[in-house]
Write a structure and sequence with these properties.
The protein is mainly alpha-helical. It contains 8 helices and no strands. 81% of the residues lie in helices and 0% in strands.
């Protein structure tokens, strides 16, 4: 995939975020404005990775990240897809497991670019643990922002005990399922390449 496709889509997303933020600000929808500012900052993730950590992901992973930001922050949070579609959150967590696994493989390859024969099993384990760690960090992020912004992204509402944990656990389970699915696919693909 050409870098231009990623840059064009990233630019379109940034323009959509800015225009929507202006409209939401004019309508005094400040929570949406905060979410749009966060989404806008997230579209600059590549600068942080490149400048701070010297990490450059491949174009497909960059495109997947931008699409995920669009689906989660823009459509989900700002345009209300989480409320419109009961399956939206579950679908995103499932997809995030797949995306984070692929990014984990990309990161593993970058980290070990000077080493030969580091092993496919090690690469796959790194990708799995990376995806699972990101899933956990995201739930911590949701919990923290709920406390700071007085939101209810974890859908606890007035529920207590096990019922209050359902959203968090379903998010973790579905992102894990996405990770396992892509892991099985990758194992079968590697096995096919050897035969």
């Amino acid at each position: 995939m050409k870098k231009d496709v990623y840059k064009i889509l990233n630019s379109i997303l940034k323009i959509m975020i800015i225009v929507t933020a202006v409209i939401k600000l004019a309508n005094s929808d400040y929570k949406s404005v905060v979410m749009l500012i966060l989404a806008f900052l997230l579209t600059h993730y590549e600068i942080i990775l490149n400048k701070l950590f010297k990490i450059k992901l491949n174009n497909i992973n960059n495109l997947l990240i931008v699409l995920f930001i669009f689906l989660a922050q823009y459509l989900g949070s700002c345009l209300g897809f989480y409320s419109l579609f009961s399956w939206w959150d579950i679908m995103l967590h499932f997809v995030s497991g797949i995306i984070m696994f692929l990014i984990g493989i990309d990161l593993y390859t970058l980290i070990n670019k000077n080493q030969k024969n580091t092993g496919e099993l090690t690469m796959l384990l790194f990708a799995v643990f990376f995806a699972l760690a990101i899933g956990n960090l995201w739930e911590i992020w949701e919990y923290t922002t709920d406390g700071i912004l007085k939101m209810d992204t974890q859908k606890a509402g007035k529920l207590v005990g096990r019922l209050a944990l359902n959203d968090t656990m379903m998010d973790l389970i579905t992102s894990t399922l996405g990770t396992v699915l892509i892991l099985v696919y990758k194992i079968l693909k590697l096995k096919g390449e050897r035969e």
